[in-house]
Design goal:
The structure holds two protein chains of two kinds.
Chain A (H helix, E strand, L loop, with lengths): L1 H29 L2 H5 L6 H10 L6 H13 L13 H36 L4 H13 L4 H15 L15 H27 L2 H8 L4 H29 L4 H6 L5 H10 L3 H29 L6
Helix pairs in contact in A: 1-13, 5-6, 5-8, 5-10, 5-13, 6-8, 7-8, 8-10, 10-13, 12-13
Chain B lengths: L14 H6 L4 H19 L41 H37 L1 H16 L2 H12 L3 H9 L4 H15 L2 H8 L4 H37 L11 H7 L9 H30 L1
Helix pairs in contact in B: 2-3, 2-11, 3-4, 3-6, 3-7, 3-9, 3-11, 5-6, 7-9, 8-9, 9-10, 9-11, 10-11
The chains are: A mainly alpha, B mainly alpha.
Chain lengths: 305, 292
């Protein structure tokens, strides 16, 4: 376990360093921050002044050290679009992303496990077949399009919920339903397999031979085994929202999360803000992924072998 | 990708054999649909019932033909400028499929040589390549793709490159694992003893065995990239008008969902059918390989 912890932490640091290097490369070398800061008709003198202010006239290694130093102080640069520190703009959007991620996680774990277990307890039944088909299809449906279809049906036609927006519980329903589709499908599939595998083991047969009912075996033994698996899988789905994969759904529902911010900043050519978003969520996700892997390894010792 | 498949080589030519090994109905439908899409993608605007770009302000926002106000002239209805939706979806097939296939191909182009090198030579080279793969797996891919589009400017080529360099890892992993297990097999050892060069062994002993698994992964990556392209085009950071893609069609009608549901319904269904078909075909090919 200890050697696993060490190697996993090393990998985490490597990912973080590579991510910082990638954003540095993209925002300083491929993009031209000076041209993006100044109006089109800026004089050469202005260009020279801004180049100096941004520290772009220094040698590259020195720029990289400055860049790293800024990161450690929590300085991710100033947004060209909003003229505010990029970090504070990013932090403003975090609550909306967290709300979306937590609600999606809760809904998908409950529903996904319920469907998976129901199917596994009666394999081949109608419930099982419908669930299997649905979870296979869920991978093929673009989530943003599903969101639009749900809006058309439940907001426009039926008028049960608002079309978009952020702030109240009722506005949460459609975005969460949309985003939960894939995790529900995946969790249903994984928990079904897990239950079937666990129920096929010798100790279950032995317990049944001793006269215990299927339900009591399930409650006492099998359930524990699948919850552990489900939690780690759900964890990776939680991370999903923070890696910008919810960007289409956030756009559909006008949800002020990180993904929408990334799109707005990109449409306004705000390289500094976008690189701040990439760095912030990239580092966060790397940390969370590492923790999840460690938790997973602690639950399932086979991982560390 | 063609819609024809290698017949199982070991089975005879007898009709009974053929029927027994025929793909299930769902897979047949998938082959048919993909074949149709390929024809549509290749022919572009040649086969469309109407011009995909001609505007007709008198026929704006017409619903599909089975609804009141619709006509057979515009089977799936028209958009806010009176352009025929079916024709636009047909023309969009080319962009969407081309980007999906090109991105998956780029991923393979990056991933397979890396995996081949790692699996065949092993040692330090393998460790370096696999660390790179792990690092790339840890990156927030969607955000990096957006970032690259911002820095290089939107468009089909940039999108393909941005998605490809963020998604090659699965090819590396698969190739490496397969090559590692092949390396110890008798025919490779024999070839080494017989003086076969590394290149010869890779080409004539390893690649033939890799083709099947790689094709399966390729056929799963194409739909994944089609979905990715559609999101990017939908949010305005992918394909730019006047080029047409399915995601862009949905994006262009976002403000009209209250009045014209068909403008987002049908391009979305085109995506879903294509993606499902690719999954089914990939499954069917895997099942055939398992039988051999």
């Amino acid at each position: 376990m200890r050697s696993y912890l060490v190697s996993r932490s090393l990998r985490m640091v490597a990912v973080m360093v590579a991510l910082i290097a990638a954003t540095f490369f993209l925002s300083r070398i491929v993009a031209d921050p000076v041209a993006l800061t100044l109006p089109m008709d800026a004089s050469p003198a202005d260009r020279a002044r801004v180049t100096h202010e941004l520290g772009l006239d220094k040698p590259l290694p020195e720029q990289f050290v400055d860049y790293l130093g800024g990161l450690f102080r929590g300085d991710l640069g100033v947004s060209v679009w909003q003229r505010q520190p990029a970090l504070s703009i990013v932090l403003e959007r975090i609550p909306a992303s967290i709300v979306l991620a937590v609600a999606t996680l809760a809904v998908s774990v409950v529903i996904g496990l319920a469907i998976g277990v129901a199917g596994a307890l009666r394999p081949g039944s109608l419930v099982d077949r419908v669930a299997t088909l649905a979870s296979a299809t869920s991978v093929a449906v673009p989530d943003f399009w599903l969101g639009i279809m749900l809006v058309t049906l439940f907001a426009v036609q039926l008028g049960w919920v608002p079309t978009s927006g952020y702030g109240s519980l009722i506005q949460l329903i459609l975005p969460v339903a949309t985003l939960a589709m894939r995790p529900i499908g995946r969790l249903a599939r994984v928990s079904r397999e897990a239950v079937l595998e666990e129920m096929g083991k010798d100790y279950v047969t032995a317990a049944r031979a001793r006269g215990l009912s299927v339900m009591s075996i399930f409650r006492k033994h099998v359930f524990k085994a699948i919850v552990a698996v489900a939690i780690t899988i759900a964890g990776y789905d939680f991370v999903y929202v923070f890696t910008g994969h919810a960007v289409g759904v956030e756009t559909v529902f006008n949800w002020p999360g990180l993904g929408q911010l990334a799109v707005e900043a990109t449409l306004r050519q705000d390289v500094i803000l976008v690189s701040a978003i990439v760095l912030f969520s990239g580092l966060l996700v790397t940390l969370v992924n590492t923790l999840l892997d460690v938790v997973h390894a602690a639950i399932d010792r086979r991982v560390t072998l | 990708m063609s819609s024809t498949v290698d017949a199982p080589r070991l089975s005879g030519n007898r009709l009974g054999d053929r029927l027994r090994h025929a793909p299930p109905l769902s897979a047949l439908l998938a082959y048919g649909f993909l074949g149709l899409m390929c024809v549509v993608a290749v022919t572009g605007a040649l086969l469309t019932p109407a011009s995909p770009t001609d505007q007709d302000l008198a026929a704006r926002l017409m619903p599909p033909f089975w609804q009141a106000g619709g006509s057979l002239e515009h089977i799936l209805g028209t958009d806010q400028l009176g352009r025929d939706l079916l024709s636009r979806i047909m023309v969009g097939a080319r962009t969407t499929l081309a980007i999906g296939v090109a991105t998956a191909a780029l991923e393979a182009l990056i991933g397979v040589p890396l995996g081949l090198t790692a699996g065949y030579f092993g040692g330090r080279l393998e460790r370096v390549i696999m660390s790179l793969t792990d690092i790339q797996m840890g990156f927030p891919a969607a955000l990096l793709i957006i970032f690259i589009v911002l820095v290089l400017g939107p468009g089909p080529v940039v999108l393909t490159v941005a998605m490809g360099i963020n998604g090659w890892m699965i090819f590396t992993r698969l190739t490496r694992v397969t090559v590692r297990s092949l390396k110890t097999s008798g025919f490779v050892t024999a070839s080494v003893v017989a003086g076969g060069s590394h290149r010869f062994i890779m080409r004539h002993h390893l690649m033939p065995h890799l083709r099947g698994p790689l094709l399966a992964v390729f056929l799963l990556e194409v739909p994944r990239m089609i979905l990715a392209e559609s999101v990017m085009s939908f949010i305005g950071l992918g394909v730019q008008p006047p080029t047409i893609s399915w995601g862009l069609l949905i994006g262009g009608s976002r403000d009209l969902i209250a009045v014209a549901y068909w403008l987002s319904l049908f391009p979305g269904l085109a995506i879903v059918f294509t993606v499902v078909s690719l999954y089914l075909v990939s499954n069917d090919l895997a099942a055939r390989r398992a039988r051999l």
